[in-house]
């Protein structure tokens, strides 16, 4: 067992192990989320159960909606393990999967309802699932309690946490930290203080700046030409010999110079100093991955998995997370390129349409229609919030139309807003339910799916709930 966990959680992990040990030799279905954390956690549960000798089948879903639970129930599976989702859908799981043995391994806030299945959830043990542990971290604790050797899955646990932006303040906290420390001790991870720019192992410095969005650097994030000018002004050459300058080529003085200039640039653009300073912080290297590949850096690994999920190539993402490094890994690199290009396109679309963003009082609303893919709308909402291009700090609620002509909603806040009382998970759940949709998530990031035509009403309910949260 990982040292330092709450007693109640240790006890729960013992109970989980007992249930798994009582399973007879029947195939186990794993249902997981399609983002980096979901893919990593699915891979951890998959590998752990295979090591116990079970046959497993793992599937990624965009969201665990009622429709999907009904479909699953039709297949009459004997055992389902939900990972990185499930706790927000306890009612429907209870309703439709009565005949299935269910284990939920999740870090989302659980629905407040009677549930007869088995739930291993961070919140039930006083752990904040938005900042202290990811779905992959929960999966890791599960795996770790089945078998000590599953400690070697620590890298995936951390990739999931970073994928869910749980290191946004520059370092991992809570149980994430305990897991990371164990990974360091076992020679799986290295944590060092450095510039937290994207792709520091693999990208030319100017590209790394362009691709950095956490923290968002107004003027540089998303802009290649400005990133080149920025480096030139600092006297840092773009090229070094035959190749481009990489972060690793800079000496300590140059890194310091660059860090100071980046912080200044952010602060001048209204980014709070604390967030700006998170440009320096912990960067995590996966020591068992090839050098100079995107898998060597936790953040880039997470983006690679996200890109497979967002392109709906779940199998590729899962295969890479499970350890495939041949053809599917090569395909995943193409996904990553496409994903970065698409994010660039979306960000520039938003920048051009900034005047269409509606200020409804307590929040900003972006109506993207079919201009932005439903799978990316959350990422873009987060970027808009963090880019500080909007005059005030308010939650951002973004709406995109799905291929099935429904409305996908993504909402994003930050620590400061959460401290003021905002809980987007509750707001999305409340407002979507009012209009016959489904929604939920974390205080800081949440989403919903509603029918087309109900947007206006839905947004009024969200506004009402947010006003209430701020007033209380
Ligand atoms: O479903 P799941 O929990 O994996 O998704 C969490 C989502 O919350 C991610 O999309 C992540 O980017 C977002 N998030 C955020 N800001 C934070 C923490 C999480 O936007 N500080
Ligand atoms: O989809 P998006 O990235 O905006 O989701 C943010 C968070 O809200 C995730 O944790 C996701 O699992 C959750 N969510 C939810 N129900 C939905 C949509 C999103 O619980 N219908
Ligand atoms: Zn997650």
Write the layout of secondary structure elements.
Layout: H1 7-22, E1 28-33, H2 36-51, E2 56-61, H3 66-74, E3 79-83, H4 90-96, E4 101-106, E5 118-121, H5 135-146, H6 154-163, H7 174-185, E6 189-195, H8 205-211, H9 224-234, E7 239-240, E8 243-244, H10 252-268, H11 273-277, E9 280-286, H12 298-310, H13 314-322, H14 327-352, E10 358-359, E11 364-369, H15 377-387, E12 396-401, E13 406-412, H16 415-419, H17 424-434, E14 438-441, E15 445-451, H18 455-471
Helix pairs in contact: 1-5, 2-5, 2-6, 2-12, 2-13, 5-6, 6-7, 6-12, 8-9, 12-13, 12-14, 13-14, 14-15, 17-18
The structure holds cytidine-5'-monophosphate (C5P) (2 copies) and zinc ion (ZN).
What does this structure look like?
The chain has 472 residues and is α/β, with parallel strands linked by helices. Helices cover 45% and strands 16% of the residues. The chain contains 18 helices and 15 strands. The strands form 4 sheets. Strands 10-11-12-13-15-14 form a 6-stranded mixed beta sheet. A 5-stranded parallel beta sheet has the order 2-1-3-4-5. Strands 6-9 form a two-stranded antiparallel ribbon. Helix 2 crosses helix 13. The protein is globular. The two termini are 40 Å apart. The site of one cytidine-5'-monophosphate has 17 residues, from helix 2 and helix 15.
What can be said about this structure in brief?
The protein is of the alpha/beta class and 472 residues long.
Give keywords:
472 residues; alpha/beta; inorganic pyrophosphatase (n-terminal core); Diaminopimelate Epimerase, Chain A, domain 1; six-stranded mixed sheet; five-stranded parallel sheet; 16% strand; globular; binds zinc ion
């Amino acid at each position: 067992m990982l040292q330092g966990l709450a007693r109640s959680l240790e006890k729960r992990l013992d109970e989980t192990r007992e249930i798994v040990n009582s399973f007879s030799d029947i195939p186990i279905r794993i249902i997981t989320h399609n983002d980096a954390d979901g893919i990593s956690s699915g891979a951890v549960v998959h590998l752990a159960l295979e090591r116990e000798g079970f046959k497993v089948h793992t599937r990624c879903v965009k969201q665990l909606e009622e429709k999907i639970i009904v479909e699953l129930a039709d297949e009459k599976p004997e055992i389902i393990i939900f990972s990185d989702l499930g706790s927000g859908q306890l009612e429907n799981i209870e309703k439709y999967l009565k005949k299935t043995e269910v284990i939920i391994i999740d870090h989302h806030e659980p629905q407040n309802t009677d549930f007869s299945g088995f739930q291993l959830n961070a919140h039930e043990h006083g752990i904040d699932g938005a900042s202290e542990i990811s779905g992959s971290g929960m999966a890791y604790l599960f795996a770790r309690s089945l078998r000590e050797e599953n400690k070697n899955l620590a890298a995936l646990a951390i990739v999931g946490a970073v994928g869910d932006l749980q290191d946004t303040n520059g370092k991992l906290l809570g149980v994430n930290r305990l897991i990371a420390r164990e990974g360091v001790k076992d020679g799986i991870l290295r944590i060092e203080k450095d510039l937290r720019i994207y792709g520091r192992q693999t990208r030319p410095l100017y590209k790394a700046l362009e691709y950095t969005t956490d923290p968002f650097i107004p003027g540089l994030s998303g802009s290649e030409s400005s990133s080149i000018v920025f480096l030139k002004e600092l006297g840092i050459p773009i090229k070094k010999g035959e190749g481009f300058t990489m972060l690793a080529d800079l000496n300590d003085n140059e890194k310091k110079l660059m860090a100071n200039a980046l912080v200044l640039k952010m602060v001048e653009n209204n980014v709070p100093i604390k967030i700006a300073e998170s440009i320096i912080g912990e960067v995590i290297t996966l020591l068992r991955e090839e050098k100079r590949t995107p898998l060597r850096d936790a953040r880039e690994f997470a983006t690679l998995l996200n890109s497979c999920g967002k392109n709906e190539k779940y199998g590729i993402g899962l295969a890479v997370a499970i350890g495939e490094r041949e053809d599917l890994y090569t395909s995943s690199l193409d996904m990553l390129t496409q994903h970065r290009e698409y994010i660039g396109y979306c960000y520039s679309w938003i920048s051009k349409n900034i005047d269409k963003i509606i200020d409804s009082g307590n929040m900003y609303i972006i109506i993207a229609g079919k201009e932005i893919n439903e799978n990316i709308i959350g990422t873009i909402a987060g970027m808009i919030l963090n880019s500080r291009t909007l005059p005030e700090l308010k939650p951002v609620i973004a709406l995109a139309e799905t291929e099935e002509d429904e409305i996908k909603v993504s909402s994003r806040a930050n620590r400061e807003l959460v401290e003021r009382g905002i809980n987007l998970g509750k707001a999305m759940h409340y407002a979507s339910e009012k209009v016959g949709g489904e929604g939920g998530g974390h205080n800081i990031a949440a989403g919903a799916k509603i029918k087309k035509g109900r947007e206006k009403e839905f947004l009024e309910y969200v506004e009402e709930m947010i006003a209430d949260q701020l007033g209380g």
